[in-house]
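3-hydroxyacyl-[acyl-carrier-protein] dehydratase FabA
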Amino acid sequence: MAERQHQFSYEELLAHGRGELPGQLDARLPAPPMLMFDRITHIEAEGGAYGKGYVTAELDLHPGLWFFSCHFIGDPVMPGCLGLDALWQMTGFFLGWSGSHGRGRALGGEIKFTGQATIDKKLLEYRIDIKRHMRSPLPFGIATGTVKADGEVIYVAENLRVGLIPVE
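Tokens:
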């Protein structure tokens, strides 16, 4: 097996969403504005909290991001569901990166909000730790995740579940 890449730039994530990243299987990231991170800073098949792999990613926050203008007028805050979606996106990306086939679908999880991503914050840091990865009969992953805003934990997620459905 060829050596896998362990970091991905924004341009590479966009190529992944279009299905154009060399060596990519059929799972794809969403395109902007639903792509919820600017780069994957590290991805590993081993290590992490459970020894089964992890992914870290970042999103640069700035006042021009689309969600700040509408959520909420006069009280801009990133919707919590978008941070949760980033963790699901990373879990699906991990499944495809590690060799599983199919199209990613979020299947559930539990989240606790302990803070907010507001317009004054500069950086969101995401991390998922893979708890379980099944390759068959349906590729499936379970992960825990955290989201930090300027170094402060603002979301904690448990049992994030993502499956890869067959490509027809």
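The domain at 10-165 is CATH 3.10.129.10 (Thiol Ester Dehydrase; Chain A).
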